[in-house]
Give the backbone structure.
Amino acid sequence: MATNEHARPQRSVALITGASDGIGAELARVMAAKGHDLALVARQGEKLAAIASEIEATGSTRPLVIAVDLSRPEGIDQVQSALTDAGAVVEILVNNAGYGQLGSAVTLDAAGQLGIVDLNIRALTDLTLRLLPGIIARRGRVMNVASVAAFLPGPYMAVYYASKAYVLSLGDALSQELKASGATLTTLCPGPTTTQFQTRAGMDPNMFERLGPMTARDVARAGYAGMMAGKRVVIPGFFNKATAVLVPLLPRSLLLMVVARLQERRKT
Ligand SMILES: NC(=O)c1ccc[n+]([C@@H]2O[C@H](COP(=O)([O-])OP(=O)(O)OC[C@H]3O[C@@H](n4cnc5c(N)ncnc54)[C@H](OP(=O)(O)O)[C@@H]3O)[C@@H](O)[C@H]2O)c1
């Protein structure tokens, strides 16, 4: 009997970007344990395959592995093709992949800073806009990973902080637009969290440890619970919540001086 694309049984997945490491890998473990069928996206296919094998070994369905560079314009098309080839539809989208760079904007490599825009902003927006109609049809969920950095300007990490302000603003607006749709959008705003992020950003790991970072597992658990509860914003940890509430009350000029001083001390 002839088959066609529409006759093929569909696999309903939670797609997690940046799932090869850190918060994304922990989200994959947490969500697999809760019974979600997953699609894992990042550049390093071997790392994704290892996490998929680890999840499969717990008795869960082996996640779909999609190794792509999301900062490249064709990256999102490649994700869509891989989903179509696997007969998968996205019910939950977790836009987690992201990076930052510590240093003065004029001396940091311009391509690296534009890469932050490509990944943290463009890829996140493209995936959200493309997949949202299907997610709404399934009354699903979106979770975008921003940061407490979204609540303040960040001298010496200027493009990164600005990118996270964009993620929070977009998420707030879309969550309002989604009201009554049955779908929800959550913005997860972690504070310092022990992952590869600091090394990739060029931060001094000793300075970072003094900030009392959370574990990626705890951040993933808080994010997952908040997303499933349909919360608009999730800020894991008391100190991070206090930062988000108090920081906007400070005079902007004072805030800029304090953040600049703190960031300069974080350099390796
Ligand atoms: N750690 C913190 O202190 C902290 C605090 C606040 C917010 N956040 C946010 O949390 C999110 C996750 O970061 P993390 O701390 O878990 O960092 P991480 O350990 O460095 O993980 C980043 C993930 O993103 C993937 N990625 C990077 N560039 C990519 C690209 N071009 N295409 C596809 N995937 C890419 C990486 O995988 P590949 O290298 O395999 O591509 C990796 O899986 C980020 O959005 C970050 O801004 C982190």
In short: Residues 11-265 form a domain with the Rossmann fold fold (CATH 3.40.50.720).
